[in-house]
Write a structure and sequence with these properties.
The protein has 123 residues and is mainly beta. It is built from no helices and eleven strands. It is globular and about 40 Å long.
């Protein structure tokens, strides 16, 4: 069992930055690849970024490449999402999740989810 708690969301102007954190409970955190997803109002939840269990591999959706960086600290049981050059279209609830099977891009492959943190980017 892994419990995930996101933090770091908030209101920021376009062009600004935020750093999200996802703290995990449980001794098996380092065995899971981790992902960030987001859901904007009226839209389906979408993949944002993922990182391997060791942190050696990462992947991003095209629209955030070069602006967002996912990282993790297994000693602290925490995964991060550094978001720079934010745009109004980045406004969403951001969720972290622990990956269990399949591709990193599909929600169905993730076993544990946090409650989400709101990110609002004003124009």
């Amino acid at each position: 069992q892994v419990q995930l708690v996101e933090s770091g969301g908030g209101l920021v102007q376009a062009g600004g930055s935020l750093r999200l954190a996802c703290a995990a409970s449980g001794r098996t955190f380092s065995s899971y690849a981790m992902g960030w997803f987001r859901q904007a109002p009226g839209k389906e939840r979408e993949f944002v970024a993922a990182i391997s269990s060791s942190g050696g591999a990462t992947t991003y959706r095209d629209s955030v490449k070069g602006r967002f960086t996912i990282s993790r600290d297994n000693a602290k049981n925490t995964v991060y999402l550094e978001m720079n050059s934010l745009k109004p279209e980045d406004t969403a609830v951001y969720y972290c999740a622990a990956h269990a099977k399949g591709t990193w891009f599909e929600e169905s492959g993730y076993m544990y989810w946090g409650q989400g943190t709101q990110v609002t980017v004003s124009s």
